[in-house]
Amino acid sequence: MSLPAQDAQLLITGGLVIDPVQRTQRIADVLVQGGKIAAIDTGIAAQLPARARGKGGPPTIDATGMVVAPGLVDMHVHLREPGFEYKETIATGTLAAVAGGVTSVACMANTKPVNDCPSVTRYILERAKAAQLARVFPIGAVSVQLAGEQLAEFAGMHDAGIVAVSDDGMPVMDAELMRRALECAKMFDIPVIDHAEDRTLAAGGVMHEGAVALRLGLRGIPSAAEDVMVSRDISLASLAGGHLHIAHISSAGSVAMVRQARASGIHVTAEVSPHHLWLTEEAVAGYNTNAKMAPPLRTEEDRQALRQALADGTIDTIATDHAPHHKDEKDVEFDHAANGVVGLEILLPLTLQLVHDGLVDLPTAIAKITSEPARILRLAAGRLEVGVPADLVVIDPTHEWVVSSESLLSKSKNVAFEGWKMRGRAIVTLVDGRIVYDRRPESASAAS
Questions:
Q1: Phi/psi of residue 320, each to 5°?
Q2: Are residues 284 and 397 in the same domain?
Q3: In terms of domains, do 276 and 308 share one?
């Protein structure tokens, strides 16, 4: 191996290095120089010039017994800024991200003002640059003010830096508008991220329609509210072309339709949220408002269908749908509580649990939260190979910890997994070769 001539910036030694693109793993060292990955090989430390190995040499992270992977990519995050800074800010949201090993986040457009024009897109990017933590990739609105009546300014927003369009939080009920959105997005080679929900079927519902809702006396939302919109939008994608991405898929029926559409050659991708992989409608028992989300938690049959679809590739990626809310918006009657939960800091251990459960192998699990979302959004992220930016995470796969809302770094604490015992945690997170979060005990920035 021939090492680059310049001095090393950082050396990570002895870790299990995961290449999610090739789906391979091997024990190796990773050399970082100039903010990029300069070499991946065994015994790099011994081959450095003597001056680099001695006093004043590069900082070294001993990753023995740990996993070295690309920084995680979460393609479905609500950072809330501008307009809802009391819930989350770009600074607090990206701090929570890097604490969870997430180095790239794509943020939804339902801010105030809505990200439906270039000026809001630029503002988000400026605030992210000031925070200097995770990379932020704005998602623009499909429609002006999320009103579902007029297409937003796709061209201007694309020039400003959006990577997709979505009215997430609000379904696009007008089929003609959705068709035009797919056609327009195709011109810019960006996906339309679909909040698939028929509002007429879901109207007034607060959880999944079924026996649990009946027992609790709560109005339900049938799976058909999602299924009919997934069916419609797959048909529109077939007609218009373009890339349709189904956000937070939650029902077995929707999974079956996505599987069939992909087999037919329609460009459809899909994501699943951790809470839909791990929880069911039973979590609402006791009127737990941190189990209230849209789409709602569904049945055990749906949950198993989602897990199988993730394993067989029908579902491409896991995305948190990180949705922070102030405690006053959750500490109310279930009917009036806001939808959504935070998830950036627990994405990694819940994904690793899929490996412990034997559902997928480790490289595939890592791909679901790195290279796959990057592929969907056409991002230069989620890869671990020479020459790419050194956005990396060092993971201790055996680290056991208990989720405590008060210890989370997100500004809001509405977590659905309070008290759950987790295994696996991000220990060091790098962006552009800079250590942006460090949980090692000897680190001055270590956190519990």
A1: -75, -30
A2: no
A3: yes
Angle between helices 224-240 and 252-263 (to 10 degrees): 20
Question: What is the SS3 assignment for 76?
Answer: strand
pLDDT in tens, 316-339: 999 999 999 999 999 999 999 999
Among the listed residues 167, 302, 316, 321, the single catalytic one is 321
How far CA 219 is from CA of 88, 199, 203, in Å, comes to 30, 14, 9
Q: CA-CA distances (angstroms) from residue 285 to 55, 218, 221, 325? A: 59, 11, 16, 20
State pTM to two decimals. 0.95
Does residue 355 lie within any of the structural domains?
yes
321 is catalytic: yes
Phi, psi of 446 (to 5 degrees): -60, 145
Residues 154 and 167 in one domain: yes
Give the integer Cα–Cα distance in Å for 85 and 330.
16
Question: For 22-36, 44-58, 217-231, 326-340, which range has the lowest pLDDT when averaged over its residues?
Answer: 44-58
Q: Residue 194: which CATH number?
A: 3.20.20.140
CA distances from 143 to 151, 323, 442 (A): 4, 21, 49
Structural tokens at position 437: 């979060």
- Say how far apart CA 136 and CA 127 lie, in whole Å: 9
CA distance 261 to 298: 23
* Domain boundaries, position 29: 10-68+389-438
Would 445 be classed as within a structural domain? no
Sequence-ordered list of residues with C-beta below 8 angstroms from that of 56, at least 6 positions apart, any chain = none
